[in-house]
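hey
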């Protein structure tokens, strides 16, 4: 019988190979293959860490693996990538996916019993959330979608990202009502920011940075609130970060004047 680590390794490699095929096939087949790989990422992740899941955990545990896969898939479908670079990206994906799935497995186990590795898993989850936010929203904007579609997808995806991130704080002690409320409010605020940014003359990387900054600020403030150690100094520090990002965007954007 395969161990969970072996399953995680197999899943990561299979998905990496599948993603690497996206640039090779014809343009008309890229989108169907991308959706297929994203769907497969959910079920392979589920198989990798299979255990006793609540209905909520069937969503929260697999948000990061699925959106991570979508981000790499979007990148490979948008740009012409050489074989050597595809190999490098595949290796990076395998490593990141392996670490993310290990962390999700730790969270799953921690729901039943406390284990020392949960603090390290929270750090991985936090960093992965920020990385995925930047990659996904930058690449999503790069698709050139209608503004309203970009905003709707941003609300849905950011709400899912906030949900899994807030759940990681208290795990089994999480209040479902508060979790849903915090996630929806954070997702809607992120969507409003995405809507405002879509009218700015920004390129995809700057959009990614701006929305990731919003995720960072909202995530940080709500996390401190949940832990009941939020104070004025903390809020000011996060708002200074947000102000700094806004200033940099304004200063580095060509306004056509």
């Amino acid at each position: 019988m395969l161990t969970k680590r072996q399953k995680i390794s197999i899943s990561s490699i299979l998905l990496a190979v599948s993603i690497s095929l996206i640039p090779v096939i014809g343009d008309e087949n890229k989108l169907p293959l991308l959706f297929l790989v994203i769907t497969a990422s959910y079920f392979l992740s589920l198989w990798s860490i299979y255990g006793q899941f609540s209905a909520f955990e069937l969503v929260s545990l697999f948000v990061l693996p699925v959106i991570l896969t979508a981000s790499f898939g979007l990148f490979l479908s948008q740009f012409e990538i050489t074989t050597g670079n595809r190999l490098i990206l595949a290796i990076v994906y395998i490593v990141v996916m392996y670490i993310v799935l290990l962390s999700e497995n730790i969270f799953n186990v921690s729901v039943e019993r406390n284990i020392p590795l949960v603090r390290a898993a929270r750090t991985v989850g936090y960093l992965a959330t920020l990385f995925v936010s930047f990659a996904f929203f930058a690449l999503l904007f790069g698709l050139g979608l209608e503004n309203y579609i970009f905003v709707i997808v941003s609300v849905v995806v950011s709400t899912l990202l906030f949900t899994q991130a807030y759940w990681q704080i208290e795990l089994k002690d999480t209040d479902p009502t508060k979790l849903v409320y915090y996630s929806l409010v954070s997702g809607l605020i992120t969507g409003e920011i995405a809507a405002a940014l879509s009218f700015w003359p920004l390129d995809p990387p700057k959009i990614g940075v701006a929305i990731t900054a919003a995720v960072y600020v909202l995530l940080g403030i709500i996390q401190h609130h949940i832990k009941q150690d939020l104070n004025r100094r903390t809020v000011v520090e996060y708002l200074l970060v947000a102000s700094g990002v806004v200033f940099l965007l304004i200063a580095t954007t060509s306004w056509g004047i």
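The chain has ten helices and no strands. The mean pLDDT is 88.
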